[in-house]
Amino acid sequence: MTSLAFENVSVQYDGRTAVHGFTDTIKPGEWLCIIGPNGAGKSSLLRAITGVTPHGGRILVDGSPLTARSSRRRAQLIAYVPQSPVLPSGMTGAEYVLLGRNPFVTHFGQESALDHSMVNDVISRLDLADLAQRDVDTLSGGERQRLVIARAIAQEAPILLLDEPTSALDIGHQQQALELVDKLRREHGLTVVSAMHDLTLAGIYSDRLALMHAGHRVAHGPAEDVLRAETLGEFYGVSVRVHREDDGTIVVVPNRTSLR
Amino acid sequence: MSSSITATQSTVHGASRWLIPASVVALFLAVLGGVMIGPAGPTWWRVPLELLNRLPLISIDSGMTSMEWAIIWQIRAPRVVLAAIVGSTLSIAGASYQGVFRNPLVDPYLLGVAAGAGLGATIVITVNRSGSSDWIIDPLPLAAFLGGLLAVLATYLVGSSVKNDRSSISLVLAGVAVTSLATAMQTFLLQRNSDVVRQVYSWILGRLSTATWSDVRLVIPYVLVSTVALLMHRRLLDVLRVGDEEATALGVDVSRVRLIVVISATLGTAAVVAVSGLIGFVGIIVPHAIRLVVGSSYRIVLPMSLLLGAVFLIVADIPGRILDNPAETPIGVVTAFLGAPFFLLILRTRQAQR
Asked: Of A5, A114, A19, whose CA–CA distance to A58 is shortest?
């Protein structure tokens, strides 16, 4: 199991700061969910971890900074499920999952039999055999999402990043995708960082929430501490009611503010 | 478990199982056809017999004179071999360019090779209009080769100097700018020296008719390096299909891969352009036709482009020899005439299948 720590991490695009001094430590096997309004810096923070965007400060994996590692080594540690993944037309499901083995293949090399058997293993464990030989173009949103998660799992990285993993899915597929991540997290001891819009789902699945606003981390802690009507009202500018169910689940319900 | 392993592997490699051997056979037939057909020389059926006769331990009387054999070996054979080299290089370079720029409309001339080579050739033809008698080596291919390489270098320097560039778009735009600049300089030179227009024009249209074994020897080292390097990147070109960002997250050093592929493809393209002139259409049409039939994985598209690009140009070179003999139709005109309808045909049959 692997820990992930942020020391004063900042991200800038063309002089505009998207993330200001983010500091946090994610314990091995923990699921941190980053919430916050659009443009708060959630995706920027995830992209900084993947190395797609340069960052200031330090991001540490098991105590050593990410920037000291090669891009291949970093990809062996961190798997990333982007918000809108590109599934190249004409590729089969199995070929797509095989892309996840890239960090283990040398520059000029080809995938080994071991890589292929890993992919088959992931496909059968995730129950994706039906999709393996199909063109990714012909798949539904839910099927595509499962395939992208399968690619990330095939990467065998101890840290899994999910950027809005459920935003394109209906409620059934949302639950299915998050249950899958949760199951894999428990089986493999994955450390998970996800950015999510659905606050109720974020509270249900994560161990801890971090609320971001205008690039700053403004609140963090367990769901019952962060998902409070006044906190959400301040940073999202919304009027909500927060219910606590008998099993401890926090439910966030928007208030209708127009005249009834 | 073992059965499912073969299932995934077959999706990646299995389709090539019969396609590659079939393409090798097609290449063999094209080469044979290429040396058999021509305006002068022996009756066509004597050619394969004489070729067999030339093999060790075989003796067949083909009834071919040594004069006729000279036509086959000194005129037709180098032309066919050069056509094969040019066709395969332009096709694999085109496919690779399309891969690193993730743009199906890209051809190997995208970053200015053609315009740079054209300018280099124009300068030499203008300066050296009397003929290249006092040169040790023929300056024309050298100038075209260097012109092509310099143009791409300029494109890369301009394109990568753009800050915060997270895509390849600035590189493509720089290629457009360098191409325009080189073409403008070429036009200016031609305006000043209108007596060489015909000579330059015939170079631009591309020709294989003057091919010799020394042309083949000249390009072989560059083409070999280029082809091997590109083939070794076929897996990474597949990873790049998910886009720069996701490829980076998958551990690919995207700008390094792009640089190596562009250098390799440019080296091969500049070398073949230097000896054959600008033969259009091959670098787009061959990889596309292959994609429509075998799918878009570069693991198959690259080796198939290599083989079928050679077949395409050998075959495209044949009608030009016979049509309006003795003044030959330029190969560039033939590739466009053959290529466009062929492409439409494949496009239509594929749509009908869906």
From this structure: A5
A4 Ramachandran zone, left/alpha/beta (phi>0; psi -120 to 50): beta
β-sheet bridge partners, residue A242: A252
pLDDT tens digits, A97-146: 999 999 999 988 889 999 999 999 999 988 899 999 999 999 998 899 98
Residue A253: count other Cβ atoms within 10 Å of its Cβ: 12
Query: What residues of A are in contact with residue B14 (Cβ under 8 Å)?
Result: none
Tell me: pLDDT of B16 over 80: no
Q: What is the pTM of this model?
A: 0.87
What CATH number does the domain located at B16-353 have?
Answer: 1.10.3470.10
Residues of chain A contacting residue B8, judged by C-beta atoms under 8 Å apart: 94, 98, 116, 119-120, 123, 132
Instruction: Kindly list the residues from chain B whose CB atom is less than 8 angstroms away from the CB atom of residue A48.
Output: none
Q: A124-128, A201-205, B44-48, B294-298: which has the minimum mean pLDDT?
A: B44-48
Q: Rounded CA gap, B216 and B309, in Å?
A: 17
Helix (H) or strand (E) holding A56: strand A56-61
Quickly count: other Cβ atoms within 10 Å of residue B25's Cβ: 12
Please name the residues in contact with B46: beta carbons below 8 A apart, sequence gap of 6 or more: B62, B63, B64, B68
* Superfamily, domain A4-86+158-254: P-loop containing nucleotide triphosphate hydrolases (3.40.50.300)
The CA distance from A24 to the nearest CA of chain B, in Å, is 22
H or E element that contains A160 = strand A159-163
Give bridge partners of residue A216 from the DSSP assignment. Answer: A213
Could you please report the per-residue DSSP string of B4-55?
Answer: HHHHHHIIIIITHHHHHHHHHHHHHHHHHHHHH--SSSS-TTHHHHHHHHHS
Per the structure block, which two tokens stand in for B296?
Answer: 């878009």
Domain definitions of chain A by residue range: 4-86+158-254
* Chain A residues near residue B249 by CB distance under 8 angstroms: 50-52, 75, 78-80, 82
Count how many pairs of residues, chain A against chain B, have C-beta atoms within 8 Å: 101
A129: closest CA of chain B, how far (Å): 9
Interface confidence (ipTM) of the complex = 0.90
Spell out the domain ranges in chain B: 16-353
Hunting for tokens 């024009």 — which residue is that?
Answer: B201
CB contact under 8 Å between A92 and B5, yes or no, is no
Beta carbons within 8 Å of B148's beta carbon, 6+ residues apart: B112, B113, B114, B116, B117, B120, B266, B269, B270, B273, B274
